Description:
The complex is a heterodimer. By secondary structure, chain A is mainly alpha-helical. Chain A has helices at about 1-20, 20-55, 60-70, 75-85, 100-135, 140-150, 155-170, 175-180, 190-200, 200-235.
Amino acid sequence: xxxxxxxxxxxxxxxxxxxxxxxxxxxxxxxxxxxxxxxxxxxxxxxxxxxxxxxxxxxxxxxxxxxxxxxxxxxxxxxxxxxxxxxxxxxxxxxxxxxxxxxxxxxxxxxxxxxxxxxxxxxxxxxxxxxxxxxxxxxxxxxxxxxxxxxxxxxxxxxxxxxxxxxxxxxxxxxxxxxxxxxxxxxxxxxxxxxxxxxxxxxxxxxxxxxxxxxxxxxxxxxxxxxxxxxxxxx
Amino acid sequence: xxxxxxxxxxxxxxxxxxxxxxxxxxxxxxxxxxxxxxxxxxxxxxxxxxxxxxxxxxxxxxxxxxxxxxxxxxxxxxxxxxxxxxxxxxxxxxxxxxxxxxxxxxxxxxxxxxxxxxxxxxxxxxxxxxxxxxxxxxxxxxxxxxxxxxxxxxxxxxxxxxxxxxxxxxxxxxxxxxxxxxxxxxxxxxxxxxxxxxxxxxxxxxxxxxxxxxxxxxxxxxxxxxxxxxxxxxxxxxxxxxxxxxxxxxxxxxxxxxxxxxxxxxxxxxxxxxxx
Lengths: 235, 276
């Protein structure tokens, strides 16, 4: 077993050093798909989180519980639902999206929205407790109040977005079903790992896994240094 | 949903459709089996087809049952699978047309080198399975409605064993593809039925060896069909047929026969032109 593990580390090292064109394409697609999914999800989830945090409406408590619960959506269930939606026999079949990167972005965005929305809601609700009086005494209109809260909590929200990215980059269940793991078209890191496991090439599979971990680490490091730089700049 | 919401949803869908894919060449989607992909056959023959025609073939590799489902829903243009009975039903129900037999290889019975069922040297697969059942030696089944699973169930039937009764005891259904099932069989260790192509391409054999091969019952035929364009008008009729034509052309048949691992051929082309 330990020999397998060292073989995997060696495989990962070789993969990174050789930077083979096939691998770069797979890594690139992984990044494009997950980043696109997270951007889409952020655009939906931040306003959603803010509304649930600040607006007072019937069923708000239910909405909060629902958002929190949906953070645990099983990727394979989302994959299946999106598959049935996008299938030629399904309601959105006419777009011909199934087995394309677009379908993978769609599915991952659905997985990520509840994560970002639920974490953002909590952050914004906490900030509201702190700033409520101030904002009210200034007579800020609701829209401005929302913007102020979003801006003031931006660093915490960044962590919520990164949590969403982690989920998107790591999941295999949804992209396998809606993307189909087509070589050169919809093959990403996680589906490539599943494929190599199928072929019994466990060291290569684990090696690819290590590359994925390094990639996620790099994205997080980049986000962190960006945050530090912004801290220094804007305080 | 508000009008703005619908507008946003439509804009998102359009944006998803525009996510760049590497190649914008004409392409078809082929739903096929894991055996053809995991064995590396497609990696060998598809570049040849693309060089000849410029058409990209996008393969979604699933079990035969799942691949037929994808075809039934109209999500592929061509289906290439290995379960003659299910293929003929697919045609009879009007989901596919123009079925052609393309190639064959064989199933093999794989098992632990220690031979817990004491079957070394047997050539008769039905007798072997009876022996495994008698001794209750661990057996890993796909259990996923794939072509290999269907073939395995037919073998138990030929052996006169009601396999559903043994479920959970020594007969374990993995519910996964051939590769994962071989990984499980290697770890248990257990006997299992696999197609030869996947076995030859498989790297994590550990103690597993070929236990029975060469029985006539182990024949494994692959067939290709076009998804019925009358039922699904968006099916790429001409491109799909051109791929099927190429597979059964002398060039395509040679490409299939030429694919070898360690000098051993994985598939044998056997297209027979229908007599007219």
